[in-house]
Amino acid sequence: MFRKTRFADHVLRQVPRGMSTRAIGSPGPVETAMREKLTTLLQPLQLTITNESHLHRHHAAMKTQGGGNGETHFTVQIVSDVFNGKNTVQRHRMVYAALSDEMAQGLHALSLRAKTPQEVDCTPGADS
Q1: What is the pLDDT of residues 89-121, one digit of tens each?
Q2: Residues 6+ apart with CB under 8 A from 73
Q3: Angle between helices 88-98 and 29-42 (to 10 degrees)
Q4: Alpha carbons 3 and 45: distance in angstroms, whole number
Q5: What 8-state DSSP symbol labels residue 22?
């Protein structure tokens, strides 16, 4: 039922058979392109991209694509000064515009959290 795979940090982990280790291990070409484009265009202070495609492979749309290519659903958490003065919709539009090629080529869903540095800095005295 499970197969074993080894991570870069040498932690042994069990992964269900048939599940791509790419979702857990090294990034694939879509994730790599996403990271490069978002880094270039938005100059983030923080950028976390999580491939969650394996959680959605049973959905009807993914079954018709044969489970997708393993890079269809992502969560993106990004902190950038570029978002200053922009509302949530404007921020999301910026991210979607940056990733328009990937969306056209099979990227199916993004869960976005786009913040300014001030919005994530919760340390005491950060306002002074």
Answers
A1: 999 999 999 999 998 887 888 999 999 999 998
A2: 51, 52, 53, 55, 56, 108, 109, 110, 111
A3: 120
A4: 37
A5: G
